[in-house]
Amino acid sequence: MLRIPTAAFIVLFFAPIPVGWYIGVRLSQYQRDPNAVLGGFSALRPDLYTDEGQDWVRRQWLWLVLVIPWEVILFVLFGRGQ
């Protein structure tokens, strides 16, 4: 049976994913070449997006920088790192 702390950990662990998807969808609207298939960190180069999309590029980088500490904090708080 799933305990409440485990369920809370799972929910909090996966909570940032929809935010990342949303930022990615908004960012894709500003691609210079809409037919290009972009993936990985190289897809977040600012020169691949129009000037209007630069804010979304920065938001995506900020999200990426904050996700790692968020996950580490969760592992520390919920004791999963042992």
Description:
By secondary structure, this protein is mostly helical. It has one domain. It has three helices and no strands. The protein has helices at about 5-15, 15-30, 55-80. It is elongated, with a radius of gyration of 16 Å.
Average pLDDT taken over every residue? 89
* Helix/strand order, N-terminal first: HHH
**Radius of gyration using CA atoms only:** 16 Å
Shape: elongated
Helix content range = 55-70%
Oligomer: single chain
Provide the low-confidence segments as ranges. Answer: none
Structural category: mainly alpha
- How many independent structural domains? 1
Number of alpha- plus pi-helical segments: 3
Biggest sheet overview: none
Terminus-to-terminus distance:
21 Å
Total E-strand runs: 0
Q: Report the β-strand fraction as a percent range.
A: under 5%
Short descriptors:
single chain, 82 residues, mainly alpha, 3 helices, 60% helix, elongated
Brief summary:
This protein is mostly helical and 82 residues long.
In terms of topology, how is this protein built?
Elements (H helix, E strand, L loop, with lengths): L3 H11 L1 H13 L25 H25 L4
